[in-house]
TrEMBL record:
<keyword id="KW-0520">NAD</keyword>
<dbReference type="GO" id="GO:0016616">
    <property type="term" value="F:oxidoreductase activity, acting on the CH-OH group of donors, NAD or NADP as acceptor"/>
</dbReference>
<dbReference type="InterPro" id="IPR002347">
    <property type="entry name" value="SDR_fam"/>
</dbReference>
<dbReference type="InterPro" id="IPR036291">
    <property type="entry name" value="NAD(P)-bd_dom_sf"/>
</dbReference>
<protein>
    <submittedName>
        <fullName>3-ketoacyl-ACP reductase</fullName>
    </submittedName>
</protein>
<dbReference type="InterPro" id="IPR023985">
    <property type="entry name" value="SDR_subfam_1"/>
</dbReference>
<dbReference type="Pfam" id="PF13561">
    <property type="entry name" value="adh_short_C2"/>
</dbReference>
<comment type="similarity">
    <text>Belongs to the short-chain dehydrogenases/reductases (SDR) family.</text>
</comment>
<keyword id="KW-0560">Oxidoreductase</keyword>
Length: 287
């Protein structure tokens, strides 16, 4: 316990799913939390996103752990509004030590318009860059930046294992690939300042993104209206371990480690929490 005592962590997409899990675990380990989320839907993303009451619940869970919470509704696509929310959070909580760029969407439906590609890139890539860059002025030596990628970053596209992701899936895969490259290159620039930057790449994760009709249809294109039970028969195709998905807490454990001083010399890493998913799509290269 107490692995991040005294630190302040900023988390995007904090209202539910992985973001809420990260907020709760970081708070349990001693961090105060700045939680931001859009709390509204995006038209091409055909499953509902979080609501203001979800963000309120995240703040409540942080405070239940005995830590302070600053919650703000902000769109990661809007650098100015995001920066203003971060500045207010830092003014209230006093500092910023950890940045977790977690917000993401996956408009994974065949037949969507090209706007789905644009929306996925705007949230999953531009949103990451906006959060990180709007935070830089607050970060000092010892700070840790953690970016949520995806095992999709190591696939040629989301059209893998029989999955038809449509333009949104293509945008999602593109965004995650570029995010991985961004972390690699920016980590090198931040290292002389002793600011660390790493990516975590989950496989299927037990969140609302995975448990949604568009995702069920992507995994079971052979059925007109697949259920969760139908889709879960196909979910294990992504992993080498015979499981349908990992849990948000599995990702949060990696977040807390990378946020802590125990990882003080770990930077530029692409940490895959994927139950061996990478091993299924990438042969050994010898490097």
């Amino acid at each position: 316990m107490g692995r991040v005592t005294g630190k302040v962590a900023l988390i995007s997409g904090a209202a539910r799913g992985q973001g809420r899990s990260h907020a709760r675990m970081l708070a349990a380990e001693g961090a105060d939390i700045i939680a931001v989320d859009l709390c509204a839907d995006i038209e091409t993303n055909e499953y509902p996103l979080a609501r203001p009451e979800d963000l309120d619940e995240t703040a409540r869970l942080v405070e239940k752990e005995g830590q302070r919470a600053f919650a703000a509704i902000a769109d990661v696509r809007d650098r100015a509004a995001l920066s203003e929310a971060i500045d207010r959070g830092v003014a209230e909580l006093g500092r910023l030590d950890v940045v977790v760029a977690n917000a993401g969407i996956c408009p994974l439906t065949a037949g969507l318009p090209p706007q789905a590609f644009a929306d996925a890139v705007d949230v999953d890539l531009v949103g990451v860059i906006n959060l990180v860059h709007a935070s830089l002025k607050h970060l000092q030596a010892g700070a840790s930046i953690i970016v949520t990628g995806s095992v999709a970053a190591f696939m040629a596209s989301m059209n893998t294992g029989g999955i038809d992701g449509g333009p949104g899936g293509a945008g999602y895969a593109f965004a995650k690939q570029v995010v991985a490259h961004y972390v690699n290159d920016f980590a090198l620039q931040l290292a002389p300042k002793f600011i660390r930057m790493n990516a975590i790449h989950p496989t299927n994760c037990n969140t609302d993104m995975l448990h949604s009709p568009p995702m069920y249809r992507a995994f079971r294109p052979d059925l007109p209206n697949p259920t969760r039970d139908d889709a879960e028969l196909s979910f294990p195709v992504i992993q080498a371990m015979p499981i349908p998905y990992v849990e948000p807490v599995d990702i949060s454990e990696a977040v807390v480690f990378l946020a802590s001083d125990a990882a003080r010399y770990i930077t530029g890493q692409q940490l895959r929490v994927d139950a061996g998913g990478f091993l299924k799509v990438k042969p050994w290269s010898g490097v």
